[in-house]
Every structure is written in structure tokens, then in C-alpha cells.
């Protein structure tokens, strides 16, 4: 589940409240990818840069963008050096570019999510502003296409290597990466609810509409948070008093969010 939308609409509050509730149904990971993390403040429990248990079946992490990109670049570098040790210097140079490439963070987040998601029943992501969230979904698509292309190229090379009696580990590495990103893309399309959060205010609604339009094909819902009077047929979460701290968050009426999860076939209302 992803919560996106304009600044200050309630993404983090809803992420925390939903994750708390879902953790009663299954192992849940709450992730903040917003550089301005606020999970610690809202939950009233210290959340760090590494995944840690913050409740029964509830785990949380405030990802450090820099740290994540750094680790990802190191990982890529290690793999490349292992494959072709003679090109070490060139790869070091490449790793520098990789770190500052425009989608470095998204690629690193995707790689991280792909490794982690199998360990949890529910994943709740408190997203950064709209642009970054869009890039995350678009990058998954782009990386999938890129890996497809590389695999085709490498298959040719593998045939030659096999003919020469050598084993080519590049192909199996690429195929594994491709499988990972394909699984993640499938999860994004089939198993993910995206909430474009807005308030009863025109600018935030406009941003939610843009998000919904740009993510056509995914399960996106514009949700009105801090709802009080506006006519709205879609999901809404009413205005609440002090929606922070575990006790109060559990009181927040997120019935519409949970109902969508159940309607999408994710069941566990018992
Ligand atoms: N349903 C609600 N009722 C009343 N107040 C709410 C509700 N949801 C959120 N708030 C309040 O709105 C403010 C902004 O919420 P929050 O920090 O969750 O928004 P955000 O979208 O994550 O902001 P940012 O873009 O800065 O990360 C907070 O003061 C929060 O307590
Ligand atoms: Mg926030």
C-alpha cells in the first residue's frame, strides 16, 4: 500500500494508522521513503534507518536515501568486479555516475523492496512528494524493459561461451534480476493499493487527480483525509483529534481504506 499526495495532506499519519491496523492481521513493514521522515514523531516510537520491530508483527524503517544509494552502488560494483576483474577502475568510475544518476534513488529503493517484500504480508509505504512516487513506479517499468534488452544481448554471448566450454554467470545474474523486478512489477499492478491523499481543498485534490491519471493501470484511489463535509463517494478518513501516538492512531477511522483492501481480495477481516 502506498500513500502519496501533496505536502501536509496526511500521508504519514494514514501510513502509520494503516500499518498499525494491518499488523494485527499479519507481519507488516512500514517504510518511509520521504527524506523528511516523520514516522517517529507520529507513532511516538523511535524508528531508525534499519528495519526494526516497533510492535507485535509491526516493523518500521525510515530509509536514508543517501545510504541506500551508496549501498546499492557498492553492490553493483562488487558484482561487476566479480564478473570482469580486469575492468575494476572503469567500474569504479561507472559507480560514481550510477550514484548521481536521476533515478538512482528509485532504482535502489526498488532493489531493496524486491529483496524485502517476501518477508512480509503487508507493506505500507509513506511516499515522498508526488514526483518521486511517480518516478518509483515508472522506474520499475523502465528497469524491467532494460533488463529484458540486456538479457537478449547476453544470451548471444552465453552461446559463444558455452561453445568454448566456459560458464557465463552474467546470464543467470541478469535472469535473477529480471525475475525480481518482474515480481515487483506484478505486485505493483496486482497487489498494490495506491492512495492519492487529498484534503477538502482544491490544490491538494488537483495533485491527487494528476497522480491518479499518471498512474493509470494501477489501483489508485483519491482519498479525502481530514474529511468533514464535502460530498465524496470515494474513500475518506474523517477529521480527528490529535491523530498521533499508537492509541489515537488505532482510533482513527480508516474503515474505507481497509474495505478497499478487502474488496481487492486481500481479505483478512477476522
Ligand atoms: N484525519 C486527520 N484528522 C486530523 N488531523 C490530521 C488527520 N490526518 C493528518 N492530520 C494532521 O495533519 C498534519 C499533516 O499530517 P502528516 O504529517 O501525516 O501529512 P504528510 O502528508 O505526511 O505531510 P508531509 O508532506 O509533510 O510529509 C499533522 O498535523 C497531522 O496530525
Ligand atoms: Mg509525511
Overview features:
binds adenosine-5'-triphosphate; eight-stranded mixed β-sheet; Rossmann fold; 55% helix; 270 residues; 10 helices; binds magnesium ion; alpha/beta
What's the short story on this structure?
The chain contains ten helices and eight strands. The chain has helices at residues 11-22, 39-43, 65-83, 88-99, 104-116, 130-163, 169-190, 202-214, 246-251, 255-266, and strands at residues 2-5, 28-32, 52-55, 58-62, 122-126, 193-198, 219-227, 236-238. It has an eight-stranded mixed beta sheet with strand order 3-4-2-5-1-6-7-8.
Task: Explain the overall architecture.
The chain has 270 residues and is an alpha/beta fold. The chain has one domain: Rossmann fold (3-Layer(aba) Sandwich). The chain has helices at residues 11-22, 39-43, 65-83, 88-99, 104-116, 130-163, 169-190, 202-214, 246-251, 255-266, and strands spanning 2-5, 28-32, 52-55, 58-62, 122-126, 193-198, 219-227, 236-238. An eight-stranded mixed beta sheet has the order 3-4-2-5-1-6-7-8. Strand 6, helix 8 (202-214) and strand 7 form a beta-alpha-beta unit. Helix 5 (104-116) crosses helix 6 and helix 6 (130-163) packs antiparallel against helix 7 (169-190). The two termini are 20 Å apart. The mean pLDDT is 88. Residues 11-12, 34, 38, 126 line the site of magnesium ion (MG).
Amino acid at each position: 500500500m502506498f500513500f502519496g499526495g501533496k505536502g501536509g495532506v496526511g500521508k504519514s499519519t494514514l501510513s502509520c494508522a494503516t500499518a498499525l491496523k494491518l499488523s494485527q492481521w499479519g507481519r507488516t513493514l512500514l517504510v518511509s521513503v520521504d527524506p523528511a521522515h516523520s514516522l517517529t514523531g507520529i507513532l511516538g516510537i523511535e524508528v531508525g534507518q534499519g528495519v526494526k520491530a516497533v510492535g507485535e508483527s509491526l516493523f518500521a524503517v525510515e530509509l536514508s536515501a543517501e545510504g541506500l544509494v551508496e549501498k546499492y552502488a557498492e553492490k553493483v560494483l562488487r558484482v561487476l568486479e566479480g564478473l570482469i576483474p580486469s575492468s575494476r577502475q572503469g567500474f569504479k568510475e561507472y559507480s560514481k555516475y550510477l550514484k548521481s544518476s536521476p533515478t538512482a534513488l528509485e532504482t535502489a529503493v526498488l532493489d531493496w523492496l524486491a529483496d524485502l517484500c517476501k518477508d512480509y504480508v503487508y507493506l505500507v509505504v509513506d511516499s515522498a512528494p508526488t514526483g518521486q512516487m511517480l518516478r518509483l513506479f515508472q522506474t520499475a517499468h523502465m528497469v524491467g524493459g532494460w533488463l529484458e534488452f540486456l538479457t537478449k544481448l547476453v544470451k548471444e554471448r552465453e552461446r559463444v561461451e558455452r561453445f568454448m566450454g566456459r560458464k557465463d554467470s552474467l546470464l543467470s545474474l541478469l535472469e535473477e534480476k529480471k525475475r525480481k523486478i518482474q515480481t515487483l512489477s506484478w505486485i505493483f499492478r496486482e497487489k498494490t493499493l495506491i492512495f492519492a491523499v487529498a484534503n477538502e481543498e482544491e490544490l491538494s485534490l488537483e495533485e491527487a487527480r494528476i497522480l491518479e491519471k499518471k498512474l493509470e493501470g494501477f489501483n489508485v484511489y483519491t482519498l479525502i483525509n481530514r474529511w468533514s463535509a464535502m460530498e465524496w463517494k470515494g474513500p475518506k478518513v474523517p477529521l480527528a483529534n490529535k491523530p498521533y501516538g499508537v492509541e489515537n492512531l488505532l482510533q482513527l477511522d480508516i474503515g474505507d481504506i481497509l474495505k478497499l483492501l478487502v474488496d481487492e481480495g486481500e481479505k483478512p477481516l477476522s
